[in-house]
Design goal:
The protein has 111 residues and is of the alpha/beta class. The protein has helices at residues 26-38, 56-71, 83-91, 104-109; strands at 2-7, 12-17, 19-21, 43-47, 51-54, 75-79. The chain has one domain (2-109): Transcription Regulator spoIIAA (2-Layer Sandwich). The longest helix has 16 residues, at 56-71. The chain is globular and about 30 Å long.
Length: 111
């Protein structure tokens, strides 16, 4: 399940995947990002505080969302990364592309 909150005057969206972000749930995240961008919410934060596990499909959905947001003139950031997700990001070197923020507010504020 993905919760979606509109933030900051409507140009930002916070997406909160819950549980496991895998090939089963990754399409839901892709859809949520696409709907946010289509709604002109191009500053997207993926709050991973309730995400206990991520696999390559989940990573692909996040990277695809980053590309979609940037093509629309925005950005996608991640926040509140747990230990398993942080390990996967480090092992894949994606922590260099997607610098994790400690809080959603920090991710929205930076840049």
């Amino acid at each position: 399940m993905i919760e979606v909150d509109v933030q900051g005057g409507g140009d930002s969206a916070v997406l909160r995947p819950q549980g496991r972000l895998t090939m089963v749930t990754a399409p839901e995240l892709r859809t949520a990002v696409a709907e946010a961008v289509e709604g002109r919410r191009v500053r997207i934060v993926v709050d991973l505080s309730a995400c206990e596990f991520i696999d390559s499909s989940g990573l692909g959905a996040i990277i695809g969302g980053l590309k979609k947001a940037r093509q629309a003139g925005g950005d996608l950031r991640i926040a509140c990364v747990g230990p398993q997700v942080a390990t996967v990001l480090q092992l894949t070197n994606l922590d260099r592309v997607l610098r994790p923020h400690d809080t959603v507010e920090g991710a929205l504020r930076d840049g």
